[in-house]
Amino acid sequence: MPAFLLAAAAALSMSLSAAALAAGAADVHENVLPPAPSADASSYAVALDGEQMLFGPADWRLEGNPFAAAASKYASGETVHLQTLPADGVSRLAVNAALCGVVIEPSDTGSFELDTVGASGPISAKLTLSGGTLTLTARGSTGLRYLCTREDARVNTVLLRVPAQRYFSLTLSARDALVHAYGEAVGSVGGSADGGMLYVTAEKLSARCTMTCTNGDVVIEADEITGKQDVQTDNGDIAVIAGKVGGELYFRSENGDIAVRAETLGRATITTQNGDLLLDVKELTKDAYLKDLNGDVRVNFRKEPQDLDFVFSGGNFDEIRLPRGWDGGVTLGSGEPKFTLRTENGEVRVTFGKLETP
Q1: Whole domain around residue 53: which residue ranges?
Q2: What are 177-215's pLDDT values in tens digits?
Q3: Interatomic CA distance for residues 240 and 279, integer angstroms
Q4: Is the distance from CB of 176 to CB of 156 less than 8 angstroms?
Q5: In a domain, 44, yes or no
């Protein structure tokens, strides 16, 4: 089983950030925003691990645990306040981030508060209001090398605190950045990323999330998800870690892995091509459709289903391991919900109980 899925199953209770090698000193807070990195100026690479992000040369090879080394080198530094804006007239939030971390979290101040946290090099950030849309523009540089958005260890991160008990539509745009939004603060989330990661967390996520990523990852983590989650990636991974999922999941990925872990899962349509797929649930409550072309599939029911209509088909398999009597499909109890699994060219495993980890 490829590492991502088993690692996701074991350890994806995500904090998502990025890190790198050494950090330059410099003017930490510039008044003029530098331009976003150009698409052809990619002489560097980005690696992600939890809530950390690491920049390095394009041809680098990660050895050992560079994230641990980077985290030990950088301590969460001072918080510098940049702006305070009243909430009046704001109905939409937009975030445009590059080469830094951004955290959007609710606060009880009643205003929008903008800070930088733990800056080890140049980070510029500003808020502008136009036509009811409040836009945060944040820029760092590859010279920052390492960033972390985790609450207890923020490094090279821009922090936007938004009024609690107010709901805004949120649009995220990230280029080689890690953007972490707390879902309690927003009514809907739209996002795109080229490199880096979009990370949405909440106790109860009622927001509808619609996100598209190229060379970027999406992670959604909540105790309960009631809003529809619509995510598409190209060369990026998708992960969901949740308790109860009542909102519909609609995930598509090319050249990326998808991992969903939940106590209960409602309606879901999950497809991937040239990637692996993990589904680890206690119970399906509505119909689910999984399709994987050229990748391995691992489905684990934490408790053996008593009511299910399992439909299975596929092409060439390296290995198929299904429960006894499930070959070709099986109807259990009431025959509802319907679980359809279609695969080609990969290993397929369906198991019961606690998910095995390496």
Answers
A1: 17-182
A2: 999 998 876 778 899 988 889 999 999 998 889 999 998
A3: 10
A4: no
A5: yes
Q: DSSP characters for 205-244?
A: E-SEEEEEEES-EEEEEEEEE-S-EEEEEES--EEEEEEE
pTM of the entire predicted model = 0.84
Has residue 125 been placed in a domain?
A: yes
Q: How many domains does the chain have?
A: 1
Q: Enter the tokens of residue 335.
A: 């025959």
**pLDDT at position 226, please?**
93
C-alpha–C-alpha distance, residues 246 and 242, integer Å: 10
Does residue 147 sit in helix, strand or coil? strand
Question: Residue 58 falls within a domain, yes or no?
Answer: yes
Identify whether 55 is part of a domain.
yes
pLDDT tens readout for residues 77-134: 799 999 999 988 898 999 999 999 999 998 888 899 999 999 988 999 999 999 999 9
In this prediction, what percent of the chain has a pLDDT beyond 70? 85
Burial of residue 27 (number of CB atoms within 10 Å: 0-12, 13-18, 19+): exposed
Q: Are strands 346-352 and 297-301 parallel, antiparallel or unpaired?
A: parallel
Q: Element (H or E) spanning 7, and its range?
A: helix 3-11
Residue 69 tokens read as: 């080394």
